[in-house]
Amino acid sequence: MYASMHENDALCAARALAQRATAGPGGHADTSMLEEQVCAEAGLWETTAARRALDQSRGDAAHAVSMLRVWAATQPHVQALPVSPDDVAVVRRLSSAYPRIPGGQWLGLAPELISRQLNWTDDDGPAADRPELTADVTAATADAPTRAATPRVRDLIDIAATVPSPADGAGDDPARTVLTPPYSRANRLAMLARGETGALVALAALILGRRQEAVMVELTVGVAAIRISHPRTGLPCAAAEVPVTEVEVVLDADVDGRPGLATGWGASLGRVERRAISLALLDGAMQADGELREPLTLDEQTVVAATDGPATNGFVEHLRLPHYASFASYLANVAGRTAS
Amino acid sequence: MTTNAVADYNDRAPLVPPEPVVSVRRLAHRFGSGCDRCIDLTGEAAGTNRCCACGSVVAVYDASFDIGPHEVLGVVGESGSGKTTLLRCLHLDLTPDSGSISVGGQAINRSTVVMVHQNALAAGLYPRLAAESNVAERLLGGGARHFGEIHSRAAELLNELGLQPERHTDALMTFSGGMQQRVQLARALVDPPQVLLLDEPTTGLDPSVQADLLDVMQRVTEALGSASVVVSHDLAAVRVLASRIVVLHHGRIVEEGIAEQVLEDPQHPYTQLLVSSRLT
Amino acid sequence: MTPGPQRPSTVAALAAQHGRPEAYAYLDEDTKRNVRRAILKALAIPGWQVPFASREMPVARGWGSGGLQVTLSLVGPNDVVKVIDQGDDHSSNAVGMRKLISESAGCAETTSTTAATIIQSRHRIPELDLRADQLLVLQVPHPEPLRRVVPADVAALVHHAERDYTPAWLDLYDAEARIGGPRTAADHPVLVDGARLMSPSPIPRYDVLRLNRRPHPILLGAGRRARLTALPPYIDVAPLAFEDSPLDPEHAGAPCWRCGSTQTYRVLAERRWCCSDIDACRVRLEATTP
Amino acid sequence: MTGSAVAEIAVAGLSKRFDAHPVVLDDVALSARGGGLTLIVGAPGSGKSTFVRCLTGVYRPDAGGVTYRLGGRGAVDVTTADARTVAWLRAHHIASFDGLLAAAPRLPAAVVAARVARCSRPSAVAALGRFHISSLAPVPIGRLRGTDRLTVALAAALLAERPFVVLDEPDRYADPDSVTRWVRRLTDDGAAVVATGSLDSALESIATATGELRRGKIEWRRP
Q1: CATH classification of C11-149+185-239, choosing from 3.40.47.10, 3.40.630.30, 3.40.50.300, 3.40.50.11310?
Q2: Nearest CA to CA, how far is C208 from chain B (Å)?
Q3: Which of C268, A216, D106, A132 lies closest to B215, judged by CA?
Q4: What is the CATH number of the domain that holds D30?
Q5: Does C124 touch chain A (CB under 8 A)?
Q6: Active site residue C223
Q7: Cα A274 to Cα A294: distance, rounded to the nearest angstrom
Q8: Do chains B and D touch (3 or more CB pairs under 8 A)?
Q9: Is C256 a catalytic residue?
Q10: Are residues D56 and D17 in the same domain?
């Protein structure tokens, strides 16, 4: 992304945020991202409960997810009001479609700044004053722009024919209702949003391997204030603040015979970005191609490629890298073809 | 008749047919491990081609025939009689256990044989690509690199076989069975193969489409001049297309003759049963 | 000869004796030797995908690990390294890799195309002319040009061995017949030396048309797929196209708002067209403004 | 026809019976030389069609031989020759009208005739004209009535101008005069023509030899 890496204070702040989050003390491992992933897969946002579940399952994420779901099922259910864009504070925003986008791009807590080289030295700050990550981030959202104030990058793409995505009705909550196929798009997205991360990434990597063009037009990490109606007054009041990663991608697709674009949207609780990117890719792929969809054969080559973790994760996350040149090339080709 | 037609006719066609293009000698193939108690491959037709000991199936046994240029050989028999195995051997999908197939004197090779399958999608055609592209594939395989020329050649062939121009760029999967057969025939016409194999060409098509297709196939087999084999259990279609018929029963050729003779005056009891069971 | 202090048998041991415990330029000597051998083989068979021992790099798979390994296997102390990402030196990934290379190899780094001796680029060919002594390394996600038409790697290998690219020509023909031109935008396959089909990495068609007979070698490293392809200097590279419908480059909507050029490859940025290759744009700007 | 290639059909010892039915042909012999018409007349069901079909290789006789000799260029016995040779003869040398015509039903009659006779379509239309059915030329053969189909087949056989012509009761499916005129022209051109007919067939006027087929045997009539 173009979030310029010229040495300036914004970059230092981003790097500090990233380093501090990883400077784990010797004894106790920092599992904040794992907790967020477990919360996302469990379909509820309670990082302390996630940490407790991970501890009791001795770190087995799958076990922890089911423990959380079991616990959540026993809790009283309060119908939350739909989240309005004004309640979502955007703390990180990127686009790999255009170098500069209206509303700007900024790194925020950038996972790609976290080094991939194991650091064996223990000369970091004392563990005690390592602030609780989410609390600190929430306080910083006071001056962050809201989702409503930030324009959508997808509106910039106007010269390519896009596959009409079906009307998004209100989806049902998979935890409370039994959803039967054929799924509406909203229900499908709701179920996938609770999907197991590895599976989502593996499927998304298979999609990426077969597509001609896949570009992440927008990734936003926001903190959404969830409002419920007050038990006595019935007025909507904020009850919780949940970080949500929202991603939109465009894939190449045939729009009545002509090359065009299919837009995919995906959102996931927490900040594990590859989940949201995979959801968007899956959504986009399921809308593209219509009846020309290619069957997937589980031959050895496909299975080996799909189960290679670093490859699939890296490949799905590489959508965060700039794709301006190839995207511009695809749009030029599409504009050329539809005109002729 | 102004000229003395019969006189100058004499020196045109010799009395006996020319050298065969395809000659098949003692073709035999067995599916399964086989064992010493297998049906004695040299024995008389034992009424079945499944070996009671090891269960292996002698699909084709001791099949020999020749096909000359411009000739169409009909191969009839009920399913399981070895028709398809014979065809797969001719199309090099299968190497027979024994026997030989030679085309124009040398061993058969892939470029000289084209098969029109019962359904186009099984023929290795490309359902998602345009009909025109499926025809163009053989031109491209031959090294053609000029789009305009390939396009006009493919369009010309498709028109000749009755596909309207506006449908040339539709995906093959959107075509009816009969139309897909015509695309396969157009592919065969791209560069005439020495051997053309038609596998159940009219099966599964409704009568009016069959009729059109028979006309088209007759024109194609004559235009190509290649040695053709049409395999079918539809005797009427084979009657129209083939000049000679070979009857297969449990992997053995039980009768061979000109089409009219096999259908009007069958000698072998199985052929008589086959012919008499036709719906007239 | 009297056995002096234990003579180091490997470069790493020698480096360790001189206070450099970790390997030079991040990669161990065996990996560098394997990559160098693969480079030589790739140069000897232009366009052929040579498998190489692709190590796990501190850069994620799909983020340039292949290109990085090629650069690190060739870089020397007096090299000047430039790393660009879609024409831009300041993308976070490009900065990270440039830092890694310059620190681990102790070489200089630059953002100037002319000053650099090794340029590692993702999806763009620098628009300033490169000299024969410069080396261009491209990062490649999908090295196999037939991946969409022949999904099975084994079958694709057979097609390459027999130089039978009918599936690729067929795909091009189908696109030409149905939509009047190739479907591929970036990563249009090229025929190297008129015979071997190669994927030039997702560079736009503007760059594909500039690949022919370049004075410097181009090395294409695919880390995730562990394949290495090379184009030796002055080799014929032509895009896969029919004789009567050549590949046409992309057309931008307006001149670059910074340097005003109309010949360069430009992308949209906030509804304004600007050069994709930042350095070339800067050089042009400095040349025009007094 | 110059003497260079004299066509001859030689039949010897021909006998045929169908399973349990009585003998249809019993030791029949005949020799038809080029330039002459050999007519076999007989009551309905006397075996005329069987005889013709044995001549053209459609039926396999139980015994006997049917040899086609073409001047100095060899001879072929259809009863013993291999199927390819018989098919080749039927396609190039023998013009047969034995009541069997297999063609793609959607083809126009003229095209079918042209294909059987291996000649151009206009000459096929002209041939149909001689039998006053040129109006049927464009009609798909599948839509023709039985008799019209046979008339087209007859026209195709006569049109083919081959050295051997074998016709089964030609004058039943077209007007006898034009058939007689056409057969005479063929014999003048040197073709060896064998035809069958009813007892009072008009072809007897131009036949060089006439025989009556009764109970499997042929009694030749004094000219």
Answers
A1: 3.40.50.11310
A2: 20
A3: D106
A4: 3.40.50.300
A5: yes
A6: no
A7: 24
A8: yes
A9: yes
A10: yes
Distance, in Å, from the CA atom of D109 to the CA atom of D131, rounded to the nearest integer, reads 13
Is C148 an interface residue toward B (CB < 8 Å)? no
Question: Which one, of D189, D197, D175, lies nearest residue D129 by Cα?
Answer: D175
A311 interface with C at CB cutoff 8 Å: yes
Are A241 and A314 spatial neighbours (Cβ–Cβ below 8 Å)?
Answer: no
Q: Which of D71, D87, D93 is facing B244, going by the closest CB pair?
A: D87
Nearest CB to D2; choose among B7, B256, B267: B7
Tally: H helices and E strands in chain D = 6, 10
Find out whether A278 and A200 touch, Cβ atoms under 8 Å: yes
In this prediction, the residues of chain B whose per-residue pLDDT falls under 70 are 1-12, 37-47, 279-280
CA distance A162 to chain C (A): 16
Fold of B16-276: Rossmann fold (3.40.50)
Asked about C253 being catalytic, the answer comes back as no
For residue B169, the Cα-to-chain-centroid distance in whole angstroms is 28
Rounded CA gap, C272 and A98, in Å? 10
Q: Which residue of C has its CA nearest to B140?
A: C166
- B147 Cα to chain C: minimum distance (Å): 6
Closest alpha carbon within chain D to B238 = D102
**Contact yes or no, C with B (3+ CB pairs under 8 Å):** yes
Q: What is the tens place of the pLDDT at every residue in A155-176?
A: 888 888 888 888 777 778 888 8
Q: Give the model's pLDDT for residue A323.
A: 92
Residues 6+ apart with CB under 8 A from D148: D109, D133, D136
Distance CA(C119)–CA(B24), nearest Å, equals 64
d(C-alpha A39, C-alpha A69), whole Å: 9
Q: Which of D161, D178, D195 is the last residue of a domain?
A: D161
Mark whether C180 is an active-site residue. no
Domain that holds residue D136: 105-161
Residues D16 and D83 in one domain: yes
Contacts made by residues A114-118, CB under 8 angstroms, sequence distance 24+? A114/A18, A114/A21, A114/A22, A115/A22, A115/C58, A116/C57, A116/C58, A116/C59, A116/C60, A117/C58
CA distance B18 to chain D (A): 9
Domain match, D127 and D138 both: yes
The residue from C66, C67, C259, C274 that is catalytic is C259
Residue B45's nearest CA partner among B259, B270, B239, B215 is B270
Q: Do the beta carbons of residue B198 and residue B144 sit within 8 Å?
A: no
Q: Would residue C107 show up in a list of annotated catalytic residues for this protein?
A: no
Interface mutation vs chain C, best among A95, A329, A334, A340, most C CBs within 10 Å: A329
DSSP state of D1: -
If you count them, how many residues does chain C have?
Answer: 290
* Judgement on whether residues D86 and D186 belong to the same structural domain of the protein: yes
Q: Which chain D residues are closer than 8 Å to B267 by Cβ? A: 60
Q: Which residues in chain C (209-248) have CB-CB distances under 8 A to chain B? A: 242-245
Question: Using one digit for the tens of pLDDT, what is the confidence trace for B53-83?
Answer: 777 777 888 889 999 888 899 999 887 778 8
User: Cα-Cα-Cα-Cα dihedral of C186, C191, C192, C198, to 10°?
Assistant: 50
Contacts 24+ apart (CB under 8 A), D132-140: D132/D175, D132/D178, D133/D109, D136/D109, D137/D108, D137/D109, D137/D110, D138/D108, D138/D109, D138/D110, D139/D108, D139/D109, D140/D105, D140/D106, D140/D107, D140/D108, D140/D109
Residues of chain D with pLDDT under 70: 1-5, 223
Is C224 within 8 Å of A315 when comparing Cβ atoms? Answer: yes
Q: Model-level pTM?
A: 0.84
Q: If phi over 0 gives left and psi between -120 and 50 gives alpha, with beta otherwise, what is residue C232?
A: beta
